[in-house]
Amino acid sequence: MKNRVARFMGGQVIEWDTQELAPLKPGEVRLRVDVCALCGSDKRLFYGGAAVVPGHEVAGTVVETSRDSGVPTGQRAVVYIQIFCQTCQNCRSGWENRCENAEQLIGWQRDGGYAEYIDVPAHVVIPVPDDLPLDVAVLALDTVGTSGHGLRMALRTQETLPSKIAVIGCGPVGLGCVVAAQDAGTVEVHAYDPNPTRLGMAEQLGAVPMPDPEADRAYHVVLEASGMADARSMSQRLVRPGGAILALGDSADPYTMPATPRWRRTDCFTVRTFYFPIADTERNWALLRQIGPRLRNQIVTTHSLNDLQRTFERFVSGDLIKPCIVSEHR
Ligand SMILES: [Zn+2]
Ligand SMILES: [Zn+2]
Known about the structure:
Elements: E1 2-10, E2 13-20, E3 28-37, H1 42-48, E4 57-65, E5 76-79, H2 89-92, E6 117-121, E7 125-127, H3 134-137, H4 144-155, E8 164-168, H5 172-184, E9 188-192, H6 196-204, E10 208-209, E11 219-224, H7 229-238, E12 239-247, H8 261-264, E13 269-271, H9 281-299, E14 300-303, H10 308-316, E15 322-326
Parallel strand pairs: 8-9, 8-11, 9-10, 11-12, 12-13, 14-15
Antiparallel strand pairs: 1-2, 3-4, 3-6, 3-15, 4-5, 5-7
Helix pairs in contact: 4-5, 5-9
């Protein structure tokens, strides 16, 4: 069986490689990639190149399985990004996202989903319930999973549930926060994005535009989902004493605390989170049952693997919010 895989050469060039698939390794499972969502973090690989096949937001169907994997062929699944060890204290306590021995992420240190097939260890395969289409289920990973977990961590710092929270940056993670915040019971989500289209999407999903983006000390919880330096300083201005900033935005820039009087005299939490524990999956499915199709219709555009180069070009130009590579064999 042959596998066509994308090679990110750097300088915005994607080349193609067709390989004969090696025999499946013990304990692994082979999936046909039905959906692979582009992630903002992949832009770095599009520019800088990658040693492995990128693509870490993968939904697919098991086509081959090794003995004792416990995963049947035909199983529809999403793939957990981190190859967690299953044995450290955190893994045994259900915090796979905090694994102390994890060395590999799918699409970063081992081959990912911009391919026809992907082999992964059986324990990172998360079965998808029959009633959820895979282009909705894939949003349980970085979009709703990462933001929902981050939000819960940030809310845990607060004695009472805030009646309003701020979301800065209305890309997929920010929009996931808009959805997750309403699900958590927050009454008002005030969204900010300089891009009116993205802000409009947040409104469609139930947020209101932030009434005063210049405000000082206005929110108990501020979710910073853009990673931009301006947005980070904005979150540091907006947070109330005792509040929390959730720094979710992905960026190569350092996250700094300026030594200004305003920032010196701030008593607050900065919360940084990574991905989500697998136990969150059930609540993420429940959330996607309610809002998933609407979220998908708002943000997802579908593209073929053959169009990956063009899709990335449009993605980096800001043209697309959550492009998904969808297999024609699906
Ligand atoms: Zn991602
Ligand atoms: Zn571990």
